[in-house]
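The aim of this short unit is practical: by the end, you should be able to scan a pair of folded records and say something sensible about each. We start with the first protein, listed as its amino acid sequence and then its structure tokens.
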Amino acid sequence: MAEFVITKDNFEQEVINSDKPVLLDFWAAWCGPCKMLSPIVAKIAEKYDGTVKVGKINVDDEPELANAFKVASIPMVVVMKEGKVVNTSIGYRPIEQIEALLK
């Protein structure tokens, strides 16, 4: 499954009520490191299809979600399980480090 767009309207259904862990990628179109991280997030979505949901949150389009997660720097990756934050990473990271967040 490809990544999907998370908005304040679908956040509860797709993230809070998810029966699978959810990796959230907070990003913006103008952010260079976000563009570098994007193909890694796409690979994780493909590799973990069926076991992990991968959602993308554009901080410019969803300021309420960015504020709720206290996003100060992007890219920021958040892993949630059962509606709770279990891991966070800020900045570009290689795929191995992003995968380690899911463990």
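Turning to the second protein, read its sequence before its tokens, just as you did above.
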Amino acid sequence: MSKVNKLIITIIIGVSSAVMAAETPYVFQRSVCEKSGVCCNDSVITVPDSVTSIPDYAFADCSNLKRIILPAGLKSIGDYAFLGCESLESISLPSSLTSLGEGAFRECSSLKSLVIPNGITVIPRYLCAWDSGLESVSLPSGIKDIGSHAFAYCSGLDTINIPDSVEHIGSNVFSRCFNLKEIMLPSSVKELESYAFSDCKSLRRAVLPANNNLLGEYLFIGCDNLEEIVCESPEPAPFDCGTPFFDPSESSRYRECRLTLLPSAIPLFRTAPVWELFFH
């Protein structure tokens, strides 16, 4: 992705005693930011208590930023606010937070873990995409929606919980999470979109929602080591466009991967489209 050439910020934040404020959004050229010492060359920043919203792209491409301390009253973080902060190692999101913008922590390759506070109900698209160092994510119980590509290309991710409040999981949400070994989806999930777990090379076990809602296309394409798919739905779910779990070139996966079902549901699954492939 190309580097952001402009920094949009409503409040300019200094590290020492210098704190400047703007009442209306102002566009700073990168050179101005560097001369002002706003954030481009700072490794630690403390955001003033008066700030309640971090604007879009506010700290984008601040490559030296390692740690940022957010105020207790912060309500929102804008789109791509920390895009490309490749040195950012830790960030503690306050409990007051109610909104996260698209791609807010995208390409923060040094970020190891992220705890989403209870006030967040929607995980936006591309939230942590390409965060190669991310190992664990904690989602609160009130999450309803996990947007597409939210954790895609997080190659180090090995731990994430999916709360039983989640109703929608977007496309490619965990694509190329090479270290993810198990995923458990609650029965609350009403929509599981296509390619959700594509190329998860270490994925061994996947528990699907225990319902018969429509499943997306090629959910496990490229999951070469998947050993078990668990589905406790009493009825087989249909597939979007009739597309199977794996690519046609991966037909052997239906023999190598075990399908675990409720005993009473086996006769129905045995003759259902796509599911029947596990019985041949």
